[in-house]
Design goal:
Blueprint (H helix, E strand, L loop, with lengths): L3 H7 L3 H10 L120 E2 L8 E3 L2 H12 L1 H4 L9 E5 L4 H16 L3 E5 L7 H12 L3 E5 L6 H8 L7 E6 L6 H9 L7 E3 L2 H25 L1
Helix pairs in contact: 5-9
């Protein structure tokens, strides 16, 4: 059971608790197997705390620091964990039914046989998480970040395939035996400025509805060998690539490095009123898998024409390349 002294301090409020933790950095708070349900623990510093078997159902743990905490067998059903840090936490057999983890970090967390049914996992960073036997029925799994802070951001929409995708990017032998996966993956490239990312997100949502597996890759950074290699790997795994060349930044350099040895359909998009950069015109002349640019006036126009003007030409070219 919980240490009564620790429990009493916890209930005095976030200021008292966090100050106590600051003065006792080596102390491990013991809050095991007690009822903390529906408590307001917003921004509490619970790093390294023992919370195994504790009832935290319905608790507000938004932006709480729970790194290295032992939450095994705890009840976090319907808890608010938005923006919480759960890095390297023990979540083995933890009940997170209908919990809201939007924007939480689970880097190196152990979530073996955790229950995430109907939970919101949107925008979680799950790099290095140990995920086996998860319960994910009805969970929202959009934009899961599978890379570390030092790597280009790669997002996927399925916790259980996150490790697989990361492995594909970093293991050449594995890539050789998963050609069938490429029939559903679509790589989306473009600038990640607020104005352009709205377009990329809309494309991703539409592709999901059409049973594709969209992978969004942010390379709006200075070109490096690592970024180029990662993009090349993702490109070769893809059925086709959609690239918005509106307001290009590093896109010309990256495409120039990847397209020549690609042989994967590249469907460019361009906002009406803008011009293609000259290097892209040359790429299309040299490499027949770079398709004619589809121009759109706004997001509504783009989504309305996505099937006929973007997906269909890309699929046709993919089949043509398969035949060769």
């Amino acid at each position: 059971m919980a240490n009564p002294e620790h429990l009493a301090i916890l209930k005095q409020g976030v200021g008292v608790w966090n100050e106590w933790r600051k003065k006792n950095p080596k102390l491990v708070p013991d809050l095991t197997e007690t009822d903390l349900s529906k408590l307001d623990l917003h921004r509490y510093y619970l790093h390294g705390s023992r919370l195994n078997g504790t009832d935290l159902s319905g608790a507000n743990l938004s932006e709480a620091q729970l790194g290295w905490a032992d939450l095994s067998y705890a009840n976090l059903s319907r808890a608010d964990l938005r923006g919480a840090s759960l890095d390297e936490a023990d979540l083995v057999h933890t009940n997170l039914f209908a919990a809201n983890l939007d924007g939480a970090t689970l880097v190196f967390a152990c979530v073996v046989e955790a229950n995430f049914e109907k939970a919101n996992l949107s925008n979680c960073r799950i790099y290095g998480s140990s995920a086996w036997g998860l319960k994910l029925s009805g969970a929202i799994q959009t934009n899961l970040i599978i890379t570390s802070l030092t790597e280009p951001r790669i997002t996927v929409d399925d916790f259980e395939i996150a490790q697989f995708i990361y492995l594909l990017v970093n293991n050449e032998k594995i890539r050789d035996v998963i050609d069938t996966v490429a029939r559903k993956i679509v790589l989306i490239l473009g600038r990640f400025t607020p104005e352009r990312k709205v377009v990329l997100d809309a494309i991703r949502e539409e592709l999901r509805k059409r049973d594709y597996l969209p992978v969004l890759f942010d390379f709006d950074k200075p070109a490096t060998r690592d970024i180029t290699e990662t993009m090349r790997i993702l490109a070769h795994l893809s059925r086709f690539i959609i690239v918005d060349i509106s307001d290009p930044s590093s896109i010309p350099l990256e495409l120039q490095a990847v397209v020549p040895d690609l042989a994967v359909p590249v469907q460019p998009l361009l906002l009406s009123g803008q011009r293609e950069f000259s290097m892209f015109v040359d790429l299309r002349k040299k490499y027949h898998w770079v398709l004619a640019t589809h121009q759109y006036t706004d997001i509504g126009d783009l989504l309305a024409s996505l099937g006929d003007k973007v997906i269909a030409p890309a699929e046709q070219k993919a089949k043509e390349l398969e035949g060769r």
